[in-house]
Amino acid sequence: MSPPDTAAGGTPEGAPPGPVVNAGAVRTLRVSGAFVFTPQVFHDDRGMFVDSYQLPVFAETAGRPFPLFQASHSRSRRGVVRGVHFTSAPPGMAKYVHCAAGRALDLVVDLRVGSPTFGRWDSVVLDAARPRSTYLPVGVGHAFVALEDDTMMTYLMSGGYVPRDEHAVSPLDPALDLPFPLDGDPVLSARDRQAPTLAEAGRQGLLPEYETCLALDRVL
């Protein structure tokens, strides 16, 4: 499906030659270095079309293109909570996340020791019907709660999955006090249910250092 008012060759009528950049809106989150991108959405009688990622828009915000290594999807029923997941730094991993189907409350948690926003979180409703994307820099933890059945989340990642480098902090940690707008108990994997609290992860030496994360971000 293409945006409305396009010529046969795929270029919007009256537009100059070259790629069309649909800037949309960018908002800084409460976690340092994290953003939410709200793209322009094209609606017509066929449905809708949206550019979930555009290099010029991202690069202008982050100061560099997103270094895509892998794209992955997860599908979850209502009430599922995944996270709070993060990657050792080094190697570190940045993520760009959007909801391809359903609706989720996306949670961005600063786990970087020494960060001015350490321990702080922010939330964004990601809705396939009203597309938005969140960007998480290296060292920032990610979680979400599925608000509808068959919620599909898409992750663009700067690195691949290496089990020894992947960790979790408990999403139920009372010190974090993450919001779960659910009628019943959240549905968790055994790994996430048994994950250490933020304080325990710090004592175990699992949490990434802020300055290390910034250095890794610069060379992604």
UniProtKB/TrEMBL annotation:
| Cellular compartments per GO CC | cytosol
Q: Which domain of life is it from?
A: Bacteria
Query: Does Isomerase appear among the keywords?
Result: yes
* MF GO annotations: dTDP-4-dehydrorhamnose 3,5-epimerase activity
Site entry (Participates in a stacking interaction with the thymidine ring of dTDP-4-oxo-6-deoxyglucose), positions? 161
Give me the stretches of Low complexity compositional bias: 1-10
Keywords from the named record = Isomerase
**Which GO terms fall under biological process for this protein?**
dTDP-rhamnose biosynthetic process; polysaccharide biosynthetic process
**Which InterPro entries does the entry link to?**
RmlC-like, RmlC-like_jellyroll, RmlC_Cupin_sf
Catalytic residues of the enzyme: 85, 155
**Which SUPFAM superfamilies does this entry report, sorted A to Z?**
RmlC-like cupins
Q: Which PANTHER family match?
A: DTDP-6-DEOXY-D-GLUCOSE-3,5 EPIMERASE (PTHR21047), THYMIDINE DIPHOSPHO-4-KETO-RHAMNOSE 3,5-EPIMERASE (PTHR21047:SF2)
**Family designation:** Belongs to the dTDP-4-dehydrorhamnose 3,5-epimerase family.
> Can you name this protein?
PauY44
Q: Which organism is it from?
A: Streptomyces sp. YN86
